[in-house]
Amino acid sequence: MLLEQRQKLLFIGDSVTDCDRAKPHGEGLFHALGNGYVSIVDAFLKANYPELGIRVVNKGISGNTVRDLKARWQEDVITQNPDWLSIMIGINDVWRQFDSPPFIKDHHVYIEEYQETLTALVKESKLQTENILLMTPPYYIEINENDLMRAKMDQYGKVVKQIAEEEGCLFIDTQAAFNKILKNLYAATIAWDRVHPNEIGHTILAKAFLNKIGFDWTK
Amino acid sequence: MLLEQRQKLLFIGDSVTDCDRAKPHGEGLFHALGNGYVSIVDAFLKANYPELGIRVVNKGISGNTVRDLKARWQEDVITQNPDWLSIMIGINDVWRQFDSPPFIKDHHVYIEEYQETLTALVKESKLQTENILLMTPPYYIEINENDLMRAKMDQYGKVVKQIAEEEGCLFIDTQAAFNKILKNLYAATIAWDRVHPNEIGHTILAKAFLNKIGFDWTK
Amino acid sequence: MLLEQRQKLLFIGDSVTDCDRAKPHGEGLFHALGNGYVSIVDAFLKANYPELGIRVVNKGISGNTVRDLKARWQEDVITQNPDWLSIMIGINDVWRQFDSPPFIKDHHVYIEEYQETLTALVKESKLQTENILLMTPPYYIEINENDLMRAKMDQYGKVVKQIAEEEGCLFIDTQAAFNKILKNLYAATIAWDRVHPNEIGHTILAKAFLNKIGFDWTK
Amino acid sequence: MLLEQRQKLLFIGDSVTDCDRAKPHGEGLFHALGNGYVSIVDAFLKANYPELGIRVVNKGISGNTVRDLKARWQEDVITQNPDWLSIMIGINDVWRQFDSPPFIKDHHVYIEEYQETLTALVKESKLQTENILLMTPPYYIEINENDLMRAKMDQYGKVVKQIAEEEGCLFIDTQAAFNKILKNLYAATIAWDRVHPNEIGHTILAKAFLNKIGFDWTK
Amino acid sequence: MLLEQRQKLLFIGDSVTDCDRAKPHGEGLFHALGNGYVSIVDAFLKANYPELGIRVVNKGISGNTVRDLKARWQEDVITQNPDWLSIMIGINDVWRQFDSPPFIKDHHVYIEEYQETLTALVKESKLQTENILLMTPPYYIEINENDLMRAKMDQYGKVVKQIAEEEGCLFIDTQAAFNKILKNLYAATIAWDRVHPNEIGHTILAKAFLNKIGFDWTK
Amino acid sequence: MLLEQRQKLLFIGDSVTDCDRAKPHGEGLFHALGNGYVSIVDAFLKANYPELGIRVVNKGISGNTVRDLKARWQEDVITQNPDWLSIMIGINDVWRQFDSPPFIKDHHVYIEEYQETLTALVKESKLQTENILLMTPPYYIEINENDLMRAKMDQYGKVVKQIAEEEGCLFIDTQAAFNKILKNLYAATIAWDRVHPNEIGHTILAKAFLNKIGFDWTK
Amino acid sequence: MLLEQRQKLLFIGDSVTDCDRAKPHGEGLFHALGNGYVSIVDAFLKANYPELGIRVVNKGISGNTVRDLKARWQEDVITQNPDWLSIMIGINDVWRQFDSPPFIKDHHVYIEEYQETLTALVKESKLQTENILLMTPPYYIEINENDLMRAKMDQYGKVVKQIAEEEGCLFIDTQAAFNKILKNLYAATIAWDRVHPNEIGHTILAKAFLNKIGFDWTK
Amino acid sequence: MLLEQRQKLLFIGDSVTDCDRAKPHGEGLFHALGNGYVSIVDAFLKANYPELGIRVVNKGISGNTVRDLKARWQEDVITQNPDWLSIMIGINDVWRQFDSPPFIKDHHVYIEEYQETLTALVKESKLQTENILLMTPPYYIEINENDLMRAKMDQYGKVVKQIAEEEGCLFIDTQAAFNKILKNLYAATIAWDRVHPNEIGHTILAKAFLNKIGFDWTK
Known about the structure:
The structure is a homooctamer.
Chain A: E1 8-13, H1 15-18, H2 37-48, E2 55-58, H3 66-76, E3 84-88, H4 91-95, H5 111-126, E4 132-135, H6 148-167, E5 170-172, H7 174-182, H8 199-212
Parallel strand pairs in A: 1-2, 1-3, 3-4, 4-5
Helix pairs in contact in A: 2-8, 3-5, 5-6
């Protein structure tokens, strides 16, 4: 188990992280952490390691791209001074290129800007902590050569992996965790619109996170 | 234009037809026809052929399978005695095999029951009218060899086509109408969850319907 | 078809244009364009010309007169820099002289101010684009020599036509489109209060617009 | 003043009478009489003739035609045993022929059925009381030769007058009361949709009623 | 009839005047004048004198004392520049001395302050118009020597009368109008809590007002 | 203290007893006893005599007259088999003769019916328990020779006293308890509409009740 | 892992099981299983063993005692014919003896009735399946010799254990699972009112359940 | 009775004092004092001593610690200039160390800061009045050696007693008042979550307060 006593673990991201958390500060009881993977991670940390007293903070905001994270990085991450930082961002950066509507180009965050911005944010936070986790933004759809968004999401995922390697972050391949399930469950069973996971999808995310930090399930 | 003066055109189906129509009877002003393709068809019929006085009735109910249609066919179709009857059913028959949850087999309507039931309903209505339109149930997702539900939907669509041919119904291939758009717009732009279309998706359905009945757009 | 690839088409007007659009910016999916003629125009543009990628923006605001448009022209039109601009305004300018209550004269916009202001707005926008459409503000009531508001609306409609000719705008005679229907449908079937059209009325407006820009319905 | 001490005055009709009255029984304080002309009549009766102790009962129901009145005449009129009975019905009988939608003929109540039914109801009530008032159903629109519904409403109004004469009822020509105002106020100032009057329109109705029963305004 | 063509009549007061009027400006259709005596006055003015085009404005605010009127006199009266001004104030000035709770003396407006302030407001408005009406604040309870608030209300009413005489205003004795009814109707039939009148009570107020301005009921 | 261990105390009456209690059965925590004098009595019984384990049940229903009590006596009183029974009824029996509206005579319960019915109910319950308390129905208004309802309420109160004497019930003179306060607090401070008491009024009722059963406040 | 392919696992109990599940049938997506331990169990079963296709059904109802379970056992358990059955009941059986209010003895389910009823239900279900799990009803409060409810809950827990042994059921000691956490977290951190657990408390319950059925967390 | 005529009694504290009082100022009728012990104290003061005209003000705010009181002492206490001041604070100071979550140390108010701050506030207010009452913050749970929060609450209670002695304040031992009841009623009967009392718990608090100020219950 990598986390140590009284450390603060901060999650930042988009709607998949947000999940109706308390605003402006997502910490504490009464669903303050939202109802997604962050809450599951917190509950298992408290259930298995109550003696550690880990503080979990949720700073996800629905609809965010990496461009939005940049705008609030100082207030929502740096001033929080976390011991551990988990970042999962990118679905909206790509989605806006395909959905509502694809023609509004100023809402798109292309891969160069994505890589550049995410790298800069990681570098800035490394001045505070070496404990940074990068999760690929998951897209819940079958692998499909004809699916353009599926292909683009994979490219963004590769960027995340590349940054993790370059900057020495822990890397969590959420797509790999999902692919294992996909052999038995259709994508729509896990995420109605292929983007927002239900309890099953969030549990997969939480498991991937906890496994990466050396969580002992049998403790 | 196939429809004649003072004829009654009745639509039956699932949530794609329903679209929050008035219950129990979907006819009249004030959104009584719902906000989907049925309403668009009605508005264009009234705008281009006001002299015909076509009555449009919406009898769609969200979540219905062909098994549900069978249970209410007498009340919602036969007693209405329509001059024209349009049927679009099948997405839930298939979806239940993939989504919520696929393990509840008694909610599934397999292809044999689907074919048998739909054929019987068409035969029963043919005693009242020869003017029956069969629309394939659309699934808004890219053609994909790996996508099991996509494949199964196409099989059900073929059954619809077969019944139309056997029973002498007008056949509307909604999937073909959609595929044309797909070259330029990603599926999620048309149907958030790949099943429930937005205004663009409903307009495609309405266009396919109106074209099939010989609607003159320039009138 | 007059519109070309990736152009932006902006609609401005009053409640007939607004139709509960997203505020402050009316663009995108999820009913952001409202539920009136603007949404119908957008859906048909995307359904028939998906390859063009036309951006449609709705800037209508309920209750507006041309005086209100003037106050927000810089922010809502000029800074948007549209390639195509459609203006439909005037019903409130006249209505306030007849309804609630006719005695509050400072709410009236008389025909001189109407003509002067609308001309100035068109001239200002012509510095950005030559593609301006002027739609007459429709009043859904039978032609009637005894009806004073009917008579006044026609005068305002003539002003719109005159400005279109003087400034070289495309002119859309919504009243003419309506009169054709009126032979078979009573006015109240199209607009409950003779001002706010229902789906039929909005379809008539959308058809008039699309026909004017050379829309190919059979594409 | 025709009404005498402790008499019961019952109003029956459609939405113009109903005006959100208490259901099932419209009598008493706290807006039980609704917010239309019935409430104004009651307030003036109590303000000018408190010593008479007149009971006012409102049995209007929105959307009713004379066919609906017939169905509930026994329960809502006969068993109430009123000393005075006021009937205003007919707008929906005609409106359904013009609005939502004109093609649904089974919702129409044509003039023969209207005359026959209303006559029968009056005859039945005359067994209880001789004090019956018939009000023409008002339509708030300018007199207009081109307006088909205006013309038809006048025909129904003439039927009301004819029945009043034949059966010896008091006759209230609401349209005449309205026409006087029309010279100075546009119809939309009095009734938004030309059918449901606002405070001004209801005051005109109440005045016509009170004048007919010999109300002394200066008492 | 004292009011002349196109004049503006402004009412100011407390909750009895307010009656849920539109805020901040109470003028126009759609219940903008509230549902009390102001609305009744307006409806009768428009019904009997439509040719005059009287503008009626309601500036009542619930809970106000004369001290509150003073604070907003400039904005709500002077800048409105009315041709006719009607003032009814004082119930809260007295009520606070008896109800909630009587011990909070800083909420009380004693008779000296009341007289002084009301006189000053009238004097200020007389610079704009000579047409000022003063209505005594009504308290709907039986005359009762044991009732301290009843006694005090009468003292405040006498002050209103005195100011009307000194400043040459029209004086409306609402209490006298009420006393006439009281012989036949118990106070609670007119005002549930003896302060806020229902439709009957408001009709009595409106009648008293209209009679004072020479309103012709038979016109 | 008259109540003994594990006894059940049942209150029945109108809105003053009801006070938004749980329906159909008013017993237990979470405001099941309503927010009036019954709840105060219960809280003091539990606070001062927790060892007794008294069960308190509230069976008040808003708007009830003694006629209504009779209709539900079997279900709400007899089958409950209370050890102690407290009855406070009569305000609506009288109020209906004065308020809404006084002309609806079939809603009135005159003093003969009142006396007869209440006596019968008491006699019926005496077969179950000798411990019956009769509270006079309070009317929160100054004693006033001119006030007809005040006078009638006192007559009904005298009937309650007479029945208590004849049937050997404990008698609680709520009016006397109120009169003591009246020397210092105006009636409106205790009951907004003179019928429904606030916290102060309910506390006076609870005190009168507790004093009558020998409650020791200093325990 | 004890569960096998396509088996149905049914949970029955009180509010801790219910957690706002879908009614009347708790099965499927969209929070149909509620937001408590049942949902966590289901998500982990689907995430780790998607190939098994386990059906999870939630039949908990808030406020139930074992007496309530008995009343609905036939409909909610026997007709469901589960392969696995998990029962957690008893907190309300005890709580009613201590809380709201303790004096209402007919709401209490004493230990003899509890043991007898639960045994009978288990015996009845054993005719259908041998796979029955009994969970002790958890009470989230520190062990405390002075706490009477704590002591009584432990007695009921012992009864559960005894039945499990006698009837050959799997036994889950939820209290033991909780006690481990209690060394580091105060009871109120896990259950606000000591009865209804939050996410942490439900995670502890789910873990205890999954461990008992041989769940492989690392799969 | 210690309070004298026309004195102002101000209560300050946390949610137990707040109880949904009017904001920003808690004084007057219509539940302005909330529904807790403050309202009960006020009602009994007015019921037994109406001649004194005591003003009661509630300045409790939910969630407050003594640190929060300090921040608003000037505005909510000093400028109110009370004759009597009652302070009950501390439950949140301690609770945050145990509940949501205990790991967020910046929300804790440890005993040194508590003592120091409360002493300073008392000293500051003593410059205005000598009549200060200090109530211990009650925690509704059985005395329990294993209960850490119970133990800590008692330490804070001792600090309150110590300050009362040092500064010459009246001291109210709410815990002692509660312990007396505890012999017969389980803690959960009085406070659902052991912190927020119900009507019984608030009555115990009000009784302790009134007894301390020499209230005569039999007056």
